[in-house]
Structure formats: C-alpha cells, structure tokens
Amino acid sequence: MLWNCIRTVRLLRRALATSRWPPERLRAWQWRQLCRRLDHAYSNVPLYRKLYDECGFHPRDVRGLEDLGRVPVLRKERLRATAPADRVARGVRLASCRPISTSGSTGTPLQIFLDEADQCWQRATAWRILFEHGYRLTDRTVEIRATLGQRFFVQSLGVARKDWLSLRDPPAAWVAHLERTRAQVVVACATTLAALAEAASAGGARPRPRLAFSDSEPLTPPLRKSIQQGLGCDPIDVFGLVELSNFAWQCEQRQGFHVSADSHLVEIDPERATLIVTDLGMTGMPIVRYDTGDTAEIESEPCPCGRTLPRLRAIHGRAIESVVLASGQRLFWPFFHEVLGAFAEIRQWRVLALPGHTPRVQLAAASTIVPHVRRTLAAAAPELSDWEIETLPEIPWRPGEKLRLVVTGP
Ligand SMILES: [Zn+2]
User: Given Cys at both, which of 148, 154, 298, 323 links 159, Cβ 3.0 to 4.6 Å?
Assistant: First the structure.
C-alpha cells in the first residue's frame, strides 16, 4: 500500500516535469522507454512473440524512433482473439490482476488485466491530467459512472477524497450531493456532465466545482455551453481508452489535445488516419503500437500555454463512426455540427447512415425547417442532396449512454 503510494507520487512528479521538457529530451526519453517495452513484449508476452514472428520482425530492427513504422501494428481484433493468459507477461498471475472491461457499446467487450504495477501506472497517468489543471490533494472529487470505482484507505484520511455517484440516480440527486459536499472537482462523460448542469439550472441550484473533466464522448460545443452555464466552469475534454488510460487532454487554452508523451507514444496511421498508441509504462500487459480505431489529426503549431508536449488538433472518435461519400470524402460529426449548428431552431441532431439504407438526418426541430436544411446540406456537399431528413420532438438518447452523433451500425 505505502509502496504503491510512493510509486504513484514519483510517477506523477516526473510526468508533470516532462510537460515543459525540450522536445529532443522528450524524444530521447521515449526512445529509451520504447526499447525497453519492445524487448520486454517480445521476450515475455506470447501475444507479441507470435505477432512479431509471423511478420518476420525483431526488436533489433528498430534503431531509432524513425523506424517505429517497422513494428507490426496490434489490432483490436487480434488482442481480443488472444487468450487472456497470452496477453500478459510471463510471471503475471491473472488471478491477482484487476480485470477491466471496455464498454463494448460498439462491439464485443474487451477485457484488460492490470497487475498492481500497471494499476499504479494508469492511476498516475490519469491523475497527471488533473494536476496539470491545478488539482490539489485536499480537493474533493465526485465521479459519476455506471460502475462505481475503488475506494482507497488514504482517501478516508482526507487525501484526494472521492465520492462515486451512480448514473442510475436522478441528476437532481447528483446536484444535491455536489451542493452538500461542495466538491471542487467533477468527472463524468460529456452527456452526464450536461445532464448534471441542466438539473442544476432547472432546480435553481448553484453547485460550483472548480474543475469539470469530460471524457468518453465528444464534448460538442452545445454540451460545453450547457455545462458552462449550469456548473459555472469550462469543462476540460480528456481522451483515453480503458486499455491505455487517459493520454490526451485539453490545457487551459482548450485548443486541441496535448499528448502525455512521456507515458504514451502516439502516431497517426498515414492511410487510415487512425491513432496508433504505444503505452510506455505498462509491463504486466504491454500495449505496443495499438491501433485504437479512433481517428485524429496532428497539430504542428506550438501551444500558447508553453507546454512542449505534442498536440492533436482534433480527435474525431471511432473511424467507423463517419460517413464515407462516393467521392471518398469522409464526414465526421464536426462537419455536421458546422452545417446543422448554424440553425438556431435545431435543438439536437443525429445522422443515421446504416448499411443498405439511404442516410437519414434526424432533427429535433419543427418540420418547416426541412427545406432549408436540405439546401444547406446540398450546398455543403452535393451528394447529400438525396439524403432523408426527419424531424422529431426529441432525439432519443439517455444521459450516460454513449453519445453517437453519426451512427453507422448497431
Ligand atoms: Zn496547451
């Protein structure tokens, strides 16, 4: 227990220092960590030994970060198809690991097994983002989830106190808890934060957390606005995956996402535009060149905040959750937001592009708007002129459910 605390604090201190390291120092650090991960994965994890041997690859083929592209990519299907015992390093006992499942909302759930060291590591990488925003160990955090997380002994002593609230509770109960405890930090999915903010506004309550962290879903401009109004703070968008912890986050400038480059090596697949991530710290279940299936764009301009960490201009989410036109152009939700967001009369929207069906734009708006929307869509991309447009009193989704603005499958 004590050792885990010391280890977490040490990891945190180093991580925070790296945010302003010169880029060459950061690259040298990444190179050293990558070499260790590659050797370890190849020597001790059956999944990687088999994958690399099949591809005729050996870790010595990589002589520098510029050779990273030679390392075979680990795809989600491959990870899922590998027996749990072959995903973890030799010597790691599955029975003593903490299993975590990805939500599985867009496919078959995937189980991740974290030994104690990896749990510490994931905790430190997630915490680092909070500290970048001025989190204090005396702060009280409220996290709202479907599954409640762990409680730690030190929290009962008043250090990094955390209350887990259930998604199943009514939003008014979350508001009451925040008001009663005066929690300074709140963490939840974007739509959950918005539901919390709306309940606060509707009830005339004024919970005033200092920091609100939004994850798991796109934090769209309308959701951000509603959170700002109801909670009185500008939410911080954070990106991560269960298998990789949180590794990309907005700074106080809210311009793109900084990558925690000391803990995660991030690349963009040149053909598919998907994010490929190497975790530089996990040892029990190493994750090396893992194709996340999420698409993103790199930002080359330095951030005005002064941090030297690399930045992603945008993270579009799952590659499959986009509409590909006959011309090959790929449309993500920001495209539709730009086009449809211009109409003040549209309260909500969603695009259904299911295989074998004409794509349909659903609008929570009066039907009189349809001809205007049709003209605007056609002007934005001629191929959209024959799409169906449907108006509804409300787009059916519940707070806490994965927000899918572009739906291309079950
Ligand atoms: Zn910044």
Answer: 154
Whose tokens are 């060149």? That residue is: 289
> 33 with 280: CB under 8 angstroms?
yes
**Rg, the chain, Cα only:** 22
Contact 129, 213 (CB under 8 A): yes
pLDDT digits (tens, 9 = 90+) for 298-349: 999 999 999 999 999 888 765 446 787 887 777 777 678 778 877 878 888 8
Pair type for strands 245-249 and 257-259: antiparallel
Write phi, then psi, for 319 (nearest 5 degrees). Answer: -60, -35
**C-alpha torsion 105→110→116→122, nearest 10:** -50
Give me ligand 1 centre to Cα 187, in Å.
20
Map tokens 């109801």 to a residue: 230
More confident residue, 168 or 165: 165
Ligand 1 center to 235 CA (angstroms): 15
Measured in Å, residue 9 CA sits from the centre of ligand 1 at 23
How far does residue 133's CA lie from ligand 1's centre (Å)?
Answer: 11
In the chain, the amino acid numbered 31 is W
Question: What distance in Å separates the CA atoms of residue 197 and residue 230, rounded to the nearest whole number?
Answer: 4
Going by the DSSP 8-state scheme, the letter that residue 112 receives in this structure is E
* Model pLDDT for residues 238-270, shown as the tens digit of each residue: 999 888 889 999 999 999 999 999 999 999 998
User: How many angstroms is it from 237 CA to the middle of ligand 1?
Assistant: 13
pLDDT value for 109: 60
Q: What is the pLDDT of residues 24-57, one digit of tens each?
A: 999 999 999 999 999 999 999 999 999 999 999 9
Task: Give me the helices (H) in 160-271, please.
Answer: 171-181, 190-202, 221-231
How many whole angstroms from 130 Cα to the centroid of ligand 1? 14
Going by pLDDT thresholds of 50, 70 and 90, the confidence category of residue 21 is very high
As a whole number of angstroms, the distance between CA 120 and CA 99 comes to 14
204 CA to middle of ligand 1, Å?
34
C-alpha 141 – ligand 1 centre gap (Å): 24
143 strand-pairing partners: 164, 187
